[in-house]
Amino acid sequence: MNIAGFYDESISNGVGWRAVLFVSGCPHHCPGCHNEKAQSFTYGEPIDKKNLLQRIQENSILRGLTFSGGEPLCPENIAEVLDFLYEVKKIKPNFDFWCYTGYTYEELLKRQDPVTEEFLNQIDVLIDGRFILELKDPDLTFKGSKNQRIIDMKKTREKKSIVLWENE
Amino acid sequence: MKIIKRDGRLCEFDRQKIIDAICAAMSRTEKGVDLQIAGRIAEEIEKFCEGKNEFSVYEIQDMVEKKLMDSSRKEVAQSYIIYRYNRDVARKSKTKDIFLDIIGAKANDITRENANMNADTPAGMMMKFASETTKPFVDDFLLESDVREAVKKRYIHIHDKDYYPTKSLTCLQHPLDKILNEGFRAGHGSSRPAKRIETAAFMGCISMETIQNEMHGGQAIPAFDYYLAPFVKKTFQEEIKKIGEVISKDCSHLMNYQPEDYIRKDAGDLKGDERYLQVAINNTVNRVHQAMESFIHNMNTIHSRGGNQVVFSSINYGTDTSAEGRCVIRELLNSTLEGVGNHETAIFPIQIWKKKRGINYEPTDRNYDLYQFACKVTAKRFFPNYINLDATFNQNNLWKEEDPERYRYECATMGCRTRVFENRFGEKTSIGRGNLSFSTINLPRLAIEAAHLAQERTGLYFPLGEGSEKHMTRIYKDTVLRIFMNRLEYYCDLTARQLYERYQFQCTALAKQFPLLMKGMWMESEKLNPDDRVEPVLKHGTLSIGFIGLAECLVALIGKHHGEDENAQKLGLKIITFMRDLCVGYAEKYNLNFSVLATPAEGLSGGFTKYDKHEFGIIKGVTDKDYYTNSNHVPVWYKCTAEHKAKIEAPYHDLTRAGHIFYIELDGDAVKNPESVQAVVDLMDKYNMGYGSINHTRSRCMNCGFENADANLERCPKCGSTDIDTIQRITGYLVGTTSRWNSAKLAELHDRVTHDECCGKESE
Fold first, then answer.
1. For testing the chain B interface, which of A39, A57, A61, A99 should be mutated: the one with the most B CBs within 10 Å?
2. E strand or H helix at A45, and its extent?
3. B641 and A4 in contact by Cβ < 8 A?
4. What span, in angstroms and rounded, lies between the C-alpha atoms of A68 and B135?
5. Under a CB-based contact definition with an 8 Å cutoff, are residues A63 and A16 in contact?
6. Which of A41, B197, B201, B493 gives a 20 to 30 Å CA spacing to B648?
7. Contacts of B428 (CB under 8 A, 6+ apart)
8. Over the stretch B442-493, which tens digit does the pLDDT of each residue have?
9. Pairing assessment for the beta strands A96-100 and B189-191 based on DSSP bridges
């Protein structure tokens, strides 16, 4: 898997300071994409896990890791993304994990794929849905267009129905 | 025989100078130079003057003119007069150019020296004229010759040199309780003690406005919440009394009621006393809110100091856990969040949150809710900044939670970073004290010169700067460090002496020259009579030796800066520890409060660099920018994580007791993520740092009010307007538009990096 980039720390991709992994490759091709170059699966460089893990390990300001892209949850990427999540969890057990995806939560459930299900079990927040330029609103927090949802996965798993995330 | 030069200094008579001048005049005549006549005239003048005391340059020139008129070369006299006149004009033309720059309201570095001052107004111009003419006066008459040389060659910078002749002190942390409880007299009117929150807040404002005109630096209130809290109570009682009058009932039994917290609630369903109390609380909260709003508004609009400068004001707060103190804090934060006027960010006062464990830092602490609120306000309005009272050096053993006056032992800071706490002559406190004066040492210059000397001595020549370490031998390294440390000691000694001389000069001022400051506001000044010299009380102030460009200094010495290399960090700490130890020595020697300052570099960062670049050329990583890095900071252009920056800069805070600040640049919009601000305060807590804040950008659409954190916002993404106001921070002060920044600071802003790296933008 190639990655388009890695933020050691960012305050714009979820609550608190977060590391952000931008995965290369995306099937959605939304018009107005913020990261068009990363739509290619060959863009960027192969992921250097050891290096990234060390950078995450050394940084105590981080509250969590956010997956972005590209599309972290397309079939080509999801297994390796899940793998990386496990490894980060090993060194940072208290981390919370956010993930941006162009798929909707319902689309992901429909896959009936154990890897996808496991990934959804592991993460804390999912921001779902395609980016729709006409619905773009600069006032939105942690998302680009109004159709997208910030889903609190923990509560969603408990309630077994979608619960939107609210900042405490 | 001595000659008095134009600047008043004395020098030996030199016959050759007369010959040179006459020959210069002769060379512009048809008959040309006649050395014999020139020599004879010079000799006659020397004979005439011999045995006599002193002559001015002008008297000598008059003699030359007369001798030429009497000689066979009368036409030379005319040439000489023209020559003399042209030289005089040339000498004055520098002043003329500076004056024309001020008059023309040009955007150059003289009128842009201070980002918070409007030098284009008539009063502002008047101040610049005065400032530019007092500086040479200070050079010529008030400085020792070696100090003057050191200033001229940019080894050191004397801050507020233009104010030197006025004997003014720098800044003050106001003991506001004195004014609030005793009233005061300022200008042509007097004020009675305050009785309610509105007057109390306004008197705080007047106190800072008035004393600003008696000093040359900033004004601060060290415990804003504690000072104003009693007047919240008085306001509440006033409201109770009013209710009693309205309902014609005796409410005196409610007068001493102590609310748990002053929170506005609907009183509609309440009955009897409960209802009266809630209405009184609601009205009190409203009035406190109004008072805070006017306070902020006044601090941003009332121009004092000759009518061109708002007060460089700061307020410290956050530790008063009483219901009344909490009400002050909450409403201050609410007003700050709302903004002034058309919801714009208030530039003043600089607000400083006093972070303290057990009071407001941990989730179980009484003021934790207000701390969280403060972080939210910082995210949107830059302020408050955060002073860490838990840092080992900011603690005072006398602080006891049950002591109602515990704020006396809480360290307060000036917003810009000036810190006054330790005192050789009394308890550690900030209150009623301030800095007397400070001067800054140009570390990169000392390093470059040391490197040149070391190269000469070792015969090892290579280009200095980034990457030069590969050329360095053991012997070279030892040599360059030895030379550097020696020179640093020399210039610290010189600076300490200069500060002491200025102090002695300040001591000759009479108390009446600072009518409010020396009437009890400065520590122990209440015992002075108006005609007394201020000497006995000045000892409570501090004298500070600052430094600039540690990063560039290290690159010049060993090829790397402290942000990127462990050895450089070790050396950096060694250098600043050395300066600290020297200051401990000066404190003993002069028996005064000497300390090291991590200088905020406004106006200075460009001046040093420009001069050094001219002399030494471009040295990579040293003189290749338009500025030197602020004090001990990791260079703004160096990419690293916030935590790395914290780790590197933290140990310098303990060494720089005259003041320091830690900044983190944010990459995004903290308004949407106030937790990110708390995480920065956590870093300060973890690494024992004294004072810090976040830097980010707020761009605001003046048409629809949309705001975001984009520094380059040109068109509003909501309404399309191009009327955008962008606010950023410069040496601790907020600045609305960057056009008032000087060129060095603009360059620094351009190079600032946020603490992340990668290709993409945010995932939105």
1. A61
2. strand A45-46
3. no
4. 58
5. yes
6. B493
7. B396, B398, B409, B411, B421, B422
8. 999 999 999 999 999 999 999 999 999 999 999 999 999 999 999 999 999 9
9. unpaired
- Does residue B387 sit in helix, strand or coil? strand
The pLDDT of residue B546 = 97
* Contact assignment for B672 to A68 by CB distance below 8 Å: no
pLDDT of residue B96: 76
Would you list the domain boundaries of chain A? 2-159
> Percent of chain B at pLDDT above 90?
65
* Residues from chain B contacting residue A143 (CB–CB below 8 Å): 764
**B504, pLDDT greater than 50:** yes
- Secondary structure E strands in A82-156: 96-100, 125-128, 149-152
CA distance B403 to chain A (A): 35
Separation in Å, CA of B437 to nearest CA in chain A: 38
Render pLDDT for A11-51 as a digit per residue (tens, 0 to 9). Answer: 999 999 999 999 999 999 999 998 899 999 999 999 999 99
Q: Does A7 touch chain B (CB under 8 A)?
A: yes
Q: Which residue has the higher pLDDT, B1 or B380?
A: B380
Residue B417 has pLDDT above 60, yes or no: yes
- CB contact (8 A) between residue B679 and residue A63: yes
CB-CB under 8 Å, B764 with A59: no
Question: Which pLDDT belongs to residue B308?
Answer: 59
Q: Which residue has the tokens 């002034």?
A: B340
Entry pTM: 0.86
* CB within 8 Å: A142 and B641: no
Are B676 and A17 in contact (CB < 8 Å)?
Answer: yes
**Token pair of A20 as six digits:** 């952000």
Q: Which residues of A touch B695 (CB under 8 A)?
A: none
In chain B, what residues touch A44 (CB-CB under 8 Å)?
759
A68-96: b (≥16 Cβ within 10 Å) or e: bbbbbbbebbbeebbebbeebeeebeebb
What is the share, in percent, of chain A residues with pLDDT greater than 70? 99
Segment B131-166, tens digit of pLDDT: 888 888 898 889 998 999 999 999 999 999 989 999
pLDDT average, residue stretch B398-410? 96
Could you give the CA distance from residue B723 to residue B247 in angstroms, rounded to a whole number?
Answer: 52
A:B CB pairs within 8 Å: 103
Residues of B in contact with A10 (CB under 8 A): 667-668, 756, 762
- For residue B731, pLDDT over 60 is answered with no
Q: Which of B682, B683, B762 sits opposite A13 (nearest CB)?
A: B762
In whole angstroms, what is the distance from residue B721 CA to residue B607 CA? 38
What are the tens digits of pLDDT across the range A57-103? 999 999 999 999 999 999 999 999 999 999 999 999 999 999 999 99
Q: Please determine, looking at this structure, whether the domain spanning A2-159 carries the CATH number 3.20.20.70.
A: yes
Tokens of B650: 């933290």
**Chain B residues with CB within 8 Å of chain A CB:** 641-643, 666-670, 672-673, 675-676, 679-680, 682-683, 686, 706, 708, 717-718, 755-764
Amino acid B605: pLDDT: 58
> Residue B12: its pLDDT value, please?
83
Which residue from B642, B669, B755 is facing A12, i.e. has the nearest CB? B669
Cis peptide before B307 (omega within 30 of 0): no
Instruction: Categorize the per-residue pLDDT at B589 as very low, low, confident or very high, splitting at 50, 70 and 90.
Output: very high
CB proximity A5 to B under 8 Å: yes
**In chain B, which residues have their Cβ closer than 8 Å to the Cβ of A58?**
641, 643
**CB spacing of B667 vs A141 below 8 angstroms:** no
Whether residue B30 contacts residue B23, with contact meaning beta carbons closer than 8 Å, is answered with: no
Where do the domains of chain B lie, and which CATH numbers do they carry? 2-103 (no CATH), 143-170+436-655 (3.20.70.20), 172-409 (3.20.70.20)
